[in-house]
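User: Please fill in residues for this 114-position structure.
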């Protein structure tokens, strides 16, 4: 993590989610015995919740998809800020741009699965 990081660890199901104020989120899968395995570590975009295997991929994603909303990565986004809802899966997002890219990605995934 970063030197000035206020780290928070949350366990959700079989995942350990580590977040910090430097807009980095790491999701680490646990094995059945509860031990954390490095092989499944990924980074998560805090705005659209897409995971990437490497931080450089997340950085490219942020520059390509979220370039106009980089300030949101430095804010704590609360439930009341999630005002843009997806009509496909009921997920909510903090910006119209993030919703647009989520829906575009969701439609692509739906088409690939049919």
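Assistant: Residues filled in for all 114 positions:
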């Amino acid at each position: 993590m970063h030197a000035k990081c206020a780290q928070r660890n949350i366990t959700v199901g079989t995942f350990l989610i580590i977040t910090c104020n430097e807009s980095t989120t790491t999701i680490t899968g646990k094995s059945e015995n509860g031990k954390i395995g490095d092989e499944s570590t990924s980074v998560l975009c805090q705005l659209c919740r897409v995971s990437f295997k490497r931080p450089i991929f997340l950085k490219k994603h942020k520059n390509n998809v979220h370039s106009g909303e980089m300030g949101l990565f430095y804010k704590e986004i609360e439930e009341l800020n999630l005002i843009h809802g997806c009509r496909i899966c009921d997920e909510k997002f903090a910006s119209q741009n993030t919703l647009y890219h989520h829906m575009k990605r969701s439609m692509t995934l739906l088409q690939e699965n049919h």
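For context: The chain has a mean pLDDT of 75.
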